[in-house]
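Quick one:
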Amino acid sequence: MKLCSILTAYTLFLIPIFSAAPPIEWERKTGSLDLTDSLEYYADEKGDATLEHIRKLPETAFQPTKKANLGFFTKPVWLRFRFAYAVERILLRHEYAMTDFLTLYHPEPKGYHGDNAGDMLPFKERAIKHRLMSFWITPEPDRWFYLRLQTNGSVNLAFTLLDPTYAMESDNISQYFLGLFFGTIFVMFFYNLFLFFSLREPAYIFYCLYIAGFAFMAGTLNGIAYQFVWPDSPWLQNRAFAIFSGFAMACGMIFAILFLNLRQLNRIFFYAAAAVAGTAAIVMLAGFVVNPGLSVRAANVLGGFWVLCVLGAGIWAAVRRYKPARYFLLAWIMMLLGTTVFILSTRGVLPPNPFFLNSMFLGSALEVILLSLALADRINQLKKDKELLQVVALQKQKLLTDSYSRFFPRRMLELLERQSVEEIALGDATERHMTVLFADIRGFTALSEKMSPRDSFKFLNSYLRRVGPIIRANDGFIDKFMGDGIMALFPENAESALKSAITMQQTVRKYNHHRVKSGYDPIRVGIGIHKGALMLGTVGEQERMDGTVISDSVNLASRIESLTKKFDANVLISEMVFQELADPTLYHTRVIARVRVKGKEQPVTVLQVFDGMPDYAVEMLDKTRGDFERGFLYFHERRFSEAVNLFARVTTLNPADGVAGMYLEKARYFERISGNLTLR
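Output:
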């Protein structure tokens, strides 16, 4: 029983080995026929068999081909097939263009005739000038046709019988797919090359190199390159696949690194991709010197890692919500799908119809288009990111500029003709005619003695945040804070400074109401204004500099401000400011003093401005202005008796006029000593 089982198993094992392939039954209406199931093969291990030797082999030496690819085998492989009955001339075509040597032996009345083809022969020696190795045959019943095939690459047994009419129609379909593929490659190459020169984005040039390398690799696979590009170079045709596939994989991987920004996205994928790209470059260079079979095998093995790396990186980027990765991943899936269908077709898993045999070109064309869309999407994303960064940078720059402007006035930058603080250099200066305003809190020292240092800071900031905006609103800027004092500059006109001073006095009056209600003492602010030539610029040293103004005009403005204490006045202006007013009658003023400036022979007339004071005070000062100014004139003409009478009349009408009272006392004094002293 056990012996019977063994014999049965042995018999079942031998049946497929020794069973001959059935003869081909070709019908007139048959368009094409895959020969995979009708071929028998013999592997010539020694590599020295001739046709006569092969014909004498026993039937059991040949094995039926159950698959269309025998893998890598460098020795000759002999194939044979036969027909059941006679048929008119038909076409035998090898669907794999990368076979080194292929010889078809036709049966003839006196023997056999051999037709040669293959990559190791110049293209012009082919009997049929087609990108795929083809032969005309005239089938006869029970006569064997022999094929001798030898190659350093993969032994592909994808042979097809074609009716001449069907072959022509199939070629037309193939040409359509080839035209679509290479046309797409051509358009996308120059389109993206143009974008590279326009945008200078490195990803574009590597994408162009990738699709160029891929086009030559595809042209090698389908025989187009050997037919039209290098028909007289079997050496290049035999090595082109390894060279261009290595080149395409290297450039494609670098493109993926740049496109997906793998260095920042994921270091593991980045190093893996860099390793694959480097290995691909080695494969490309090895293709020139290493045995073609070895380089082709290396390219095929590396291709698997390359696909895994590209797809893995694309999936990772898509999971991390990198938007351009969507098109990128879809493009490689289309290419992989088309290539898979093509391989399955050439290996006999799928029927070798025109659509399946050209699926790689269709998938690759879709890949090229989708990658171009991916690049466009990436550029748009980069543009949006760049615009966002620019917005953020502008916001930061604005914040920085605003921060700097708190320490270095923006108007001073404009006057120095600088765009930003970074452009300011030590010694930058410009000469201008500007109005200078000094403001100082009366009796601040005594006031601060009643407060802690922290309260003093709070008080000063509370005061300054009320008066600072007034200066800016009138086209001025604060040059510096001097404790409780302010120095402000008005580049445009003197009237802006005067309006600021009046508004400041009104604001201080309102502020005092708040202070009194809160239990604090009211404050008074003295303001002096003068206009003249000055130098505005930077002083200091390289590690510490400041913007400032230097001139006699600044000193005079400071001195005028100091007179507000002496005359108990709120706002004093120089005659230069008064002369700059568009309509002086709009303001309530009176001449109050003449000031000598060091280095100047002529004294400067100083006027008091009533505006900004309470209405009743303005009314009384305005009512007595005529008598006061005549008394002031008599006083300086040393007509002290007349001055005493006028000042006495003013103080009688307005006892609160401290300036008139001061001049009254001085006039009486000089009258008493007969007016012989030199007026100081």
